[in-house]
Amino acid sequence: MADFCMPSLGADMRTGTLVDWKVKQGDRLKRGDIIADVETDKGIMEIEIFMDGVVEELLLETGTKVPVGTVMAKIHTEETVKNEVVPVTSSAPSIPAPKEISQEVSQSTPAPAIAKSERLRVSPLARKLATELGVDLTTVKGTGADGAIEKADIERAATLQKQPVSAPSPTVMPPAEKPAAKSTSTSDFQSGMRRAIAAAMSLANRDIPHYYLETRIDMSHPLQWLEAENQRRSIKDRILPVVLLIKAVAKSLVDVPELNGYWVDDHLQVQEGIHIGFAISLRQGGLVTPAIHHADLKNLDELMTAMRDLIARTRSGHLRSSELSDATITLTNLGDIGVEKVYGVIYPPQVAIIGFGKIAEQPWAEHGMVGARPVVTATIAGDHRATDGMVGAKFLQALNAHLQAVEAL
Questions:
Q1: 138-162 pLDDT, tens per residue?
Q2: Which family does it belong to (predicted)?
Q3: Which end of the chain is more exposed for a tag (fewer CB within 10 A), N or C?
């Protein structure tokens, strides 16, 4: 019997709220299947399972706030080792939750197994409001995604519940939703997101001794090659300059693997897979850095497709847990909004973050001649516990070399 535990989706995550089980007792699972939806400060995430097996028991009710590492379900596997606990979590190392949080649901677990009957999709906020207002969730029709019951649905049901019963009576139309409700929800989300970012960045600045390096890279040849390549393509198949940067970073990590890993238990753990966390801003505010898996093995077209898909799913709230937990390094690009240089803060337990500014014409001296060239400033922030400036310098050197040999990307 193996334990499926609440995974850590980053250094800033301490708890998550179980929104919905995607499986029931007796279901057969294979590696990569979605087992549950969990709400964090960064939104609702699809949680994957990382082994094959059969659901033996679901231990928590939906709506439960669950600390990282808490057992949520029992999975029967053929590989289960006798008397050994095998936590089913994501592949990246997790950050231990504070002791005062780890006991938060100890009194509520194990809970009775969830019944096999169909479950309601209810947001945690809506469930709490329903309890406060005495609204029976089984009588409420959800208007959210996939029929999920949201806060506005509960408010509407509570209003109708208070209407006096008389016959005959005209049809009571649902009251118009108050604009303030949506604004409050967005405000709550932004507040939660900022708290999550603050927690991670405070940890990073407190525990990680950063070093910073920068270099200017002549983008004349890469952009000329890209322009010629895009002219042969339809508009929808064209490649953006940032894709060249992503692939060049991935290939540079093959050359300098010390930057592709985690600092855990006071030593560097270099990772084989190169999973680049790509910083994506959200329309409602905040930042998420999901991973582009195996970026070094993807060609430019595959990277372009993966990036577009990741941006769309990040902004629509359909990320998988592995995409938030597996990043081995982070890339941030603020050039599209005019920033010339960006110095990032490392996201623990990663050991480096790469930054790119805008590609802009700058003076460039070569062979005794000065002219204007399209130039990008690339920066690296490294963890001085794991590497030093020499390693960072080798990475930036490799990055420049790969961009100048753009045909080989």
A1: 778 777 656 777 777 777 777 666 5
A2: Belongs to the 2-oxoacid dehydrogenase family.
A3: N
Read off the pLDDT of each residue in 294-314 and give the average, rounded to a whole number: 95
Tell me the mean pLDDT in the region 279-296.
86
Q: What is the mean pLDDT of residues 397-408?
A: 97
Residue 9 and residue 23: Cα distance in Å, rounded?
Answer: 21
User: Residue 120: is its pLDDT beyond 80?
Assistant: no
pLDDT for the residue 191: 61
Q: Mean pLDDT score of the chain, rounded to an integer?
A: 81
State the virtual CA torsion across 231, 237, 243, 248 in degrees, nearest 10. -70
Question: What's the CA gap between 297 and 136, in Å, rounded?
Answer: 51
